[in-house]
Amino acid sequence: MAAPRDIVRAAAGNEVSYSLSVSPTATFHSPPTGSQGGFVVGSLAMRAAAAAKQLKPFNTEDIKILLLENVNQTGRDILTAQGYQVEFLKTSLPEDQLIEKIRDVHVIGIRSKTKLTPKVLKEAKNLLVIGCFCIGTNQVDLDYAAKHGIAVFNSPFANSRSVAELVIAEIITLARQLGDRSLEMHRGTWNKVSNKCWEIRGKTLGIIGYGHIGSQLSVMAEAMGMTVIYYDIITLMAIGTARQVPTLEALLEEADFVSLHVPETAETQNMISTKHFERMKNGSYLINASRGTVVDIPALIKAMRAGKVAGAALDVYPNEPAANGDYFVNELNTWAEDLRGVNNIILTPHIGGSTEEAQRAIGVEVAEALVRYINQGTTLGSVNLPEVTMRSLTLDEPNHARIIYIHQNVPGVLRKVNEILGDHNVDKQISDSKGDVAYLMADISNVRTEDIKEIRDSLDSLSSRLLTRVLY
Ligand SMILES: NC(=O)C1=CN([C@@H]2O[C@H](COP(=O)(O)OP(=O)(O)OC[C@H]3O[C@@H](n4cnc5c(N)ncnc54)[C@H](O)[C@@H]3O)[C@@H](O)[C@H]2O)C=CC1
Ligand SMILES: O=C(O)C(=O)COP(=O)(O)O
């Protein structure tokens, strides 16, 4: 029998044999746990699918998964309960080690640190799917992944509340200079001060990026008596009495506290730099829990030393250490030591989403998406492929196979695919595209082993093919 990865990913030209030593009705493997549908911490939706046929052209134990960056136990449990081989590491990996490991796996689970660049993904010949156990997906080259038939999933809002709560804490902490007072006490110095310490009631919070986190923050800030304004590139409904302002400059000129909640994109690179600090109110505050590239940190240090900015809280940095215990020094970011010497600055090690609640929820959400994709091929929630789903095949539908054909979105493909499938009974078929990539799923009935091999080989020979999978 060919290695399972060949069956799962079937690189073009590979000689592939199929494990239909018995009929497709009998070859699918029930999850080994005895839990319903194989999902230990399953959501209601997953449990409702208990009678669904598990579509796997492979033995689950042959699926290799690498989980980096201390993915939560909930996610590990779901994946191991499926019988997959799960390797778990607490840290991210240096690029050379990552390349070594990624060659071998079908699935990789990461958080915000692991950079999946074209250089790394080029080596990932067996990779089917990437799970980002976080919100941000800027660390993955989504386009490269899509064009190589690799799906990417994330958790779009399970840690949003945790970030918003951290920012609320930081607003008061900065306004009262709590970080400095606490450090002084730790060093044995009593320093009772009211000069330039403020209540937050009646102050204006300017939120840049009014998405999941920004809007959640808006609600809490208003509840504490703040006035909220926000700037976003799209027009968004204001929550409560918050008000959208038309430009970034308008926000900077009006806000006492500025908090950033934008993704890392080309447009948000150094979005707050010298000229923006100049527009801010004297004695205002800056909070960045989005991405480290969004703020020009040397410019922030200057603005703080000049007294223009009275305090700042940073949770994210352009270069972050790979593991706990690593040093945050100039070798990592040239200005690190200067930053540490500034007054009233809260520096946290990218903990915005690091709560038990958030990490547990993310573990479940992303692991379930991975299992659905591996076993059923459905892409709901994928951030780089079209979202396609079809009712699962059930145990009452024997001799069925599910064809998944990920292909270039060019004219004429469907005609060719349907020529190949035309001799069979296509029960259901769905196709959607996103940019240059399209995803086609078809369930066909009364298939024999030879049919599956023939269909597979024919699809693989099409020039539009990015990836073919056959699940049964
Ligand atoms: N510190 C931490 O641990 C965490 C950090 N994050 C970061 O926070 C970011 C925001 O998260 P969410 O609120 O969930 O994202 P979201 O996608 O719900 O909202 C982002 C908002 O920013 C807006 N936006 C995009 N480009 C912009 C620009 N150039 N100018 C103004 N607005 C712009 C979008 O239109 C959108 O409304 C994530 O992309 C991630 O990088 C997310 C979770 C945890
Ligand atoms: O969810 C995000 O985008 C975050 O920034 C949190 O990242 P983390 O899971 O803590 O590496």
TrEMBL record:
Which top EC class is given? oxidoreductase
Q: Which domain of life is it from?
A: Eukaryota
EC code(s) of this entry: 1.1.1.399, 1.1.1.95
Swiss-Prot/TrEMBL catalytic activity:
(2R)-3-phosphoglycerate + NAD(+) = 3-phosphooxypyruvate + NADH + H(+); (R)-2-hydroxyglutarate + NAD(+) = 2-oxoglutarate + NADH + H(+)
> Which Gene Ontology BP annotations are present?
L-serine biosynthetic process
Gene3D superfamilies on file? 3.30.70.260, NAD(P)-binding Rossmann-like Domain (3.40.50.720)
User: Do you know which Pfam families this protein is assigned to?
Assistant: 2-Hacid_dh, 2-Hacid_dh_C
**An example Gene Ontology molecular-function term:** NAD binding
Pathway of action: Amino-acid biosynthesis; L-serine biosynthesis; L-serine from 3-phospho-D-glycerate: step 1/3
Q: Which UniProt keywords apply?
A: Amino-acid biosynthesis, NAD, Oxidoreductase, Phosphoprotein, Serine biosynthesis
**Which InterPro entries has this protein been placed in?**
ACT-like_dom_sf, ACT_dom, D-2-hydroxyacid_DH, D-isomer_2_OHA_DH_cat_dom, D-isomer_DH_CS, D-isomer_DH_CS1, D-isomer_DH_NAD-bd, NAD(P)-bd_dom_sf
| Domain named ACT: residues | 402-472
> NCBIfam families given for it?
PRK11790.1
Q: Which family does it belong to?
A: Belongs to the D-isomer specific 2-hydroxyacid dehydrogenase family.
Protein purpose:
Catalyzes the reversible oxidation of 3-phospho-D-glycerate to 3-phosphonooxypyruvate, the first step of the phosphorylated L-serine biosynthesis pathway. Also catalyzes the reversible oxidation of 2-hydroxyglutarate to 2-oxoglutarate.
The name of this protein is 2-oxoglutarate reductase
Q: Which organism is it from?
A: Staphylotrichum tortipilum
